[in-house]
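Hi R.,

Here's the chain you asked about this morning:
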Amino acid sequence: MSKKTKPTKKATNKDLEKEAPEVETKPVAEDDSATDIMVTDDLATDADDQADAPDDAHDHDEPSDKLKQKNRPPVSADDDAAGAESGDSTDDDDGSYDVYDTGTDTDAEEADSDTGPDFAEPENIDAGDDADAEVAPAARPPRTAKTTAKPAAEEEDELPELSFGNLFRRLYQVTYSKTVGLVIILVLTVMVLIGVLVQQADAATWQDPAARDAFVTAMTDRYGTWARILNLFGFFHMFTSIGFYVVIGALAVSISGCTIHRIPQLWQRWRHPKTLVSSRFFSAARYQGAVVTKGGDAKALALAMDNLKAAHYRVIKADDNSFYADRFAWGGFGTVTAHLSFIIIIASFMITGLTSYEVVANLSVGGAAVQVRDTDLAIKATSFDATFDDATGKPTDYVSHVVLTQGDQVVKEQDVRVNQPLTFGRWMFNQNSYGNGIDVHVVDGKGNTIFTGAVSQDYQSTDGTLSIGTFKLPDLGLSIDVVSVASGQTRQDLAPGQVAFVVYSEDMLTQAMGSVIVDQGNSGKITDTSDLTFFFDRENQYTAIQMRTDPGGVWLWTGAVLLVLGMTVTFTCRHRRVWVRAEDGQMLFASADKEDSGFRQNFDHLVAQAETWFPVRRK
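And the predicted structure, written out as tokens:
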């Protein structure tokens, strides 16, 4: 109820004419649209303020906001109810989005809006005999649009300035745009689908030009003329293509923009919540409850505050008749953690694709050590054992005992199985396969050994009489076939106990550069291939060890842990808010959160529990 004041003498038209100074007026262009725009904008601003939040909602530490609302027209209870219902939009109304949206974000709702308190009645107005009558809004003085005609040339020269700050702001808005985010996710989905449906080449094959050409040629038999088109667009190595990296990089930027945009809002909701709402809010909010009390409103309010504190609610007193309570105010940061995990996982994927290295080395059992790429590490196999099933003859287990050296020092040795790798630093050594092979080594013209290893003979000639294995000298751009007579076969040009070294250029695998036949324990030289000498050491069993380094692996595990943590917080620690008011022997409960079955159940349980605080029936 407003305070009554004495009526003031109203000024007559004659008085105004006497007091008004003479002002020389100049004709202006008739343009009523400008006046309409000014008035409409002001009314639209007032309407937005009412729709954003219930009246009287303001921060508990900003009481001075009332000064900002003076002389505004009052609103009715119907307007207040409409405002509460219209405030159900989430943070995403500004265009931002959640990659992992669980519907817990309500900071744009009624109680969390930035609008000030209820509109104050205009001062010095006599309410008359009926003090509760609604007061008409104060008359607004007429407004006149002032327009100034400008030369056409001057208007053409006036272009909107796009400063660096404006450009940055616009680009930043794009990063948290819901539309942009959905488009990126759709494009990524299509690319992943293509990568699943189209045969993919492994990284080692695609990095080797000869192997890549052979792969594309083989895919021609499967896809026909489409193979060239698929290769042109990078569909055979989709997950390591530049386009795929660009898309997932854009997704990481979009998630980052969304997360950065949300953090200030979540912080505001946690550290500076809106605590005071109008009495009309308790009849307009989506969640409502009431309990009849005894012993006076002040005592009932104190009792309710104590019980909610005991239930681990944060309680903030708003005024003498109401308070605000919530749980898990920090719960919204669970989505931030989930978003961060996605960014880390995407980054780990890119690091793996760009920096990881994997190769399978055939180690001759009991033979020489094989150098680990770009390190001073070397690995050798001292023994190998396989166990077979008596009924099927299939191997049930195979294990290699390997020794890892760094320089002349043994740094680690152990038995290696398929799921029991040897790890050292950033390298991992895992059992891959085994078989029979040819132990060879190659010496260049300066006497340097440039290759040592067991060559597995995995292929056969078309007539089945020859077994063929291949190894490469990438620094020289050469590919060498090691050819021997297949078991149980005979050849006129190659005897058992002999192998043929056939040298090809990686740029032309259809024509041999030279060849030499070597007996076991001897060597042969091909002078027209960089003066190389090839040694056939022996036929021997080999064990294939996979050597892999993946700098992105640790970040992948970090992202996975954060993802589980963020999901757990988001699902189990939802922000629960409630406003409580004691008046006229009742305890009123209300909340403006979005419709959610879980939250409604929690709210109803809270109201039902309040009945036990005041041993009377629920109204």
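The chain has a mean pLDDT of 76.

Let me know if you need anything else.
M.
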